[in-house]
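Consortium newsletter contribution from the modelling node. Members have asked for a concrete example of what our holo predictions look like. Here is one, prepared for the adenosine-5'-triphosphate complex that several groups have been discussing at recent meetings.
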Amino acid sequence: MAKLVEVKEVSFSYEKNSPIVFEDINFSIEKGDVLCILGPNGTGKTTLIKTLNGLHKVNSGLVLLNGEDINNLSFNDIAKLVGYIPQGHIPSFPFTVFDVVLMGRAPYVNLTSSPREEDKEIAINALKTLGIEDLKDKTYTNLSGGEHQLVFLARVLAQEPDLLILDEPTNHLDFGNQIKLLEIIEQLSNLGLAVIMSSHYPDHAFLAANKVAIMKDKSFIDFGSPEDVLTEENLNKAYGIDVNLIELENNRKICVPLKTDLELVMTNYSKKYSKD
Ligand SMILES: Nc1ncnc2c1ncn2[C@@H]1O[C@H](COP(=O)(O)OP(=O)(O)OP(=O)(O)O)[C@@H](O)[C@H]1O
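And here is the predicted structure:
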């Protein structure tokens, strides 16, 4: 059986003669996998993610969804397979939260017909799953950043995709909601949904992912299980800081970044901001 996502020898640059963002990327994702893509700012995580939902076309190589070249799939075909939450999306129209979530059913609803009762039930269920049914009648544009994020997630759940692609999904979420979101991701993946998310938090990969990729210098410097990939050495290579990995009693690992020696860079300012 074909893999849900296969990425083969993929390279990308924004313009014909502009620098390559990444090259020779290879990986695959199956049902129920959660892949966390880590890497420093500007390494190409968002760009890579956009090649997996048809928003960017690769320069060379292949992206296959369920064995089919993504270039041969229509926008609607991709929308039935892939639910995507972009980074920092800005809501523009004052729809109700319920209507925003119902829009997730668009790939299944004929343009000229209204949503069916079944679609409305699916939308309500998505709100219930995330524990935000009480936001149903609120105006989407009036919500907080974290509430937008959860409502957008409800909308892509209503889309009933096989793959969720989440670009820094815990942005804007409070301490508790970050963990709740990771638990929701874990539970959905146990049901068979696949998830690809980018993140700036290696700890989030330990909490929710079974695969991790670290992107740096136009490629993956490592890909595999969190235990194999999230080493102090790899995290130092990726972020240029020392990191201690600490194992808690319940076998859970956490990453603790150590302080850097920034005083060297700050010497020019020491006179101006002298406390004396
Ligand atoms: N529309 C664009 N046109 C040209 N270059 C772009 C465009 N979007 C991004 N880039 C460049 O592509 C590179 C990768 O950007 P990308 O946003 O994919 O990185 P990222 O790893 O997601 O970063 P971050 O962690 O900061 O969100 C960067 O050098 C960026 O400046």
